[in-house]
Amino acid sequence: MVLEFLNEPVSKFTNPKMTTVSSDLSIRDAAKVMLDSKIDSVLVFEHGQIVGIVTERDILNDIVAKGLDPAKSAVHIVLPNVKTRKASQNTLTIFT
Question: pTM of this prediction?
Answer without folding.
Answer: 0.70
